[in-house]
Amino acid sequence: MSAVLVALAAAVLVAPGSVGARRLRGLDPVAARPRTRPRTTSTLGTALVAAAVTALLVGPVPALAAALVATTAHRRLLARRTARRDARAATDLAAAVEVLVAELRVGAHPATACAVAAAEVGEPVHRVLAEAAARARLGGSAADGLHSGDPGLDTELDRVAAAWRVADERGVALAELLDAVRRDLVGRTRFRRRTEAGLAGARATATVLAGLPLLGIALGQAVGAAPVQLLLGSTGGGLLLLVGTVLVCAGLAWSGRITARVGAP
């Protein structure tokens, strides 16, 4: 009964909010801003669900192994989603800066240029540029509104904001500075794409190597060695399962860390 209660509590922890609640939050401009659920909470909830279900079906020691597998898989999934989101945001930002430069060169006001550029791209770049345009219309500095709350995108936005501040303080042509930032951003994006393509083979190899123990268990089960019964039906087998799971997950985490460092701009 306790395992069932733990599973239900973990499910409530990771369950998404209702449609009605999201609509009500949309009525408040402050609450309507995108909020990212803490990754630690999401990963912990996934691990708790996996551990509770496995403990209910098999036992406590395999439950620890299941929690490790769920944590590793969830973190790798989050890393891939973050990488795709950052790549998409960088592409949108480069396109927006290109539109911004074109509007400034034909004599548009910076606030108008920001609004036009914002209309050409999606979130979160659209939201950032719309806020910058609003600040410029009210007489403030558009550079102060170039923040998204996303560390990956903010790194690129800081370069745009720095160029904007130099133009405001030194009187340098804003279009020329932003065009230089755009070229730098395009170069970084191309380098990131080439690096990701080069790392695809290494990442696939790490995934295949991590799955080899499962292949060995399947082959042993096929020839009648009964490794599944050993791993799940005895204390010694459960400890072997836990140690093997720790080694596999540590290898995946290590390889992921290496490839992340190589792929960092």
UniProtKB/TrEMBL annotation:
Keywords carried by this UniProt record: Cell membrane, Membrane, Transmembrane, Transmembrane helix
Start and end residues of each Type II secretion system protein GspF domain: 98-218
UniProt xrefs under InterPro entries: T2SS_GspF_dom
Transmembrane portions of the chain: 45-71, 197-219, 231-254
Keyword Membrane: yes
Predominant cellular place of this UniProt entry's protein: membrane
Location within or outside the cell: Cell membrane
Membrane topology qualifier: Multi-pass membrane protein
Pfam families referenced in this protein's UniProt entry, alphabetically: T2SSF
Record's protein name: Type II secretion system F family protein
